[in-house]
Amino acid sequence: GKKDKRGGISYYSDELTELAKKHIELATRLRRAIEHSEFELYYQPQVHIKSKRIVGAEALIRWNDPIHGLISPNDFIPLAEETGLIGAIGEWVIRDACRQGKLWIDKGYNLSISVNVSANQLRHQNITRLIDSTLKETGFTADKLVIELTESAVMQREEEAVAMLHAIRAKGIRLAIDDFGTGYSSYSYLKRFPIDILKIDKSFIDEVPFENDDMAIVKAIIAMGSALGYKILAEGTEHIEQIDFLEEHGCQYYQGYYKSKPLKTSEFEKLLL
Ligand code: C2E
Ligand code: CA
Ligand code: CA
Ligand code: CA
């Protein structure tokens, strides 16, 4: 009884210590990764459904850890947010994406570049100034840049966020709401937030066109978003049946493995040829 319980507790706290140790270790490696430029942006095509043309690319970060190899953002972005390291990482992401975007424009590819900006970054970084200086520095143009934000990112400190979004958009930069439909507040803020693109979350797309509830939700998001003047992009599209359904119901764009997974820049360019 008691003995087991105590054993359980001490086992649990050992586990916590283990976890804390891992976190500290990861944070240290992450700090070093920033200094040693161990990050790389991969690009996933965004496709205009009707013309089948690649019209954009989402920049998705990868970490080339010298010991552990390629690490996915899901395994370090949350910790980067907690520790504030996201500021330095996010700055690098915007710079590198704009630099690459400019290279592609110069090669004659007419692409927009989408960059993920996290809640923490939006709160603590002077993002409008960062974007301004980056566009100047790289020569990339505002009308080719898309900033992706999640619903929860803009829900925090709403007044400030709205002002910031207006300032960003006034420069001609477009705003996309990422993972749309997974937040808890999808309607009231749509009226107040200056948005250009809704990205329907992959979870709603997965079972289309087989699951009636998901199909109803996707149709409703497309209809509502279009009526409000937004462009609609479906995320995580893997099958032609999904694309047919999306096209039939008025969704203009998709992004997903059906076209391609995120690629290194050299591989991405092969897709454009
Ligand atoms: P996200 O912004 O929602 O990006 C889409 C994720 O879905 C990407 O995962 C992409 O590889 C994956 N995906 C796209 N199409 C498909 C598909 O057809 N099937 C499946 N199974 N997956 C698909 P990734 O690259 O691992 O990124 C995960 C998340 O990490 C991103 O989700 C985003 O929230 C975050 N992230 C990535 N790069 C950055 C960054 O530079 N800054 C910040 N703040 N967050 C980032
Ligand atoms: Ca995104
Ligand atoms: Ca997403
Ligand atoms: Ca996501």
Structure write-up:
The chain has about 270 residues and is of the alpha/beta class. Helices cover about 50% and strands about 20% of the residues. It has 12 helices and 9 strands. The chain has an 8-stranded mixed β-barrel with strand order 1-2-4-5-6-7-8-9, surrounded by 4 helices. α3 runs parallel beside α5. The chain is globular and about 55 Å long. The model has no long low-confidence stretch (mean pLDDT about 90). Bound molecules: ligand C2E and calcium ion (3 copies). One calcium ion (CA) binds next to loops. Ligand C2E binds next to β2, α3 and β6. This is Diguanylate cyclase/phosphodiesterase with PAS/PAC sensor(S).
Key features of this structure:
9 strands, eight-stranded mixed barrel, binds calcium ion, alpha/beta, 273 residues, binds ligand C2E
Which bin fits the share of residues in helices? Answer: 40-55%
Query: Terminal Cα separation, in Å?
Result: 69 Å
Estimate the strand proportion: 15-25%
Summarize the main sheet. Answer: 8 strands, mixed, barrel
Mean pLDDT: 92
**Backbone CA Rg:** 20 Å
Number of separate helices: 12
Strand order of the largest sheet: 1-2-4-5-6-7-8-9
Q: Enumerate the distinct ligands.
A: ligand C2E, calcium ion
> How many β-strand stretches?
9
Strand-pairing-aware structural class: alpha/beta
Shape: globular
Brief summary of the model shown:
The chain is α/β, with parallel strands linked by helices and 273 residues long. The chain has helices at residues 2-35, 77-83, 86-106, 119-124, 127-138, 151-155, 158-170, 188-192, 202-205, 212-227, 240-248, 265-272, and strands spanning 39-48, 53-65, 69-71, 112-116, 145-150, 174-180, 197-200, 231-235, 253-255.
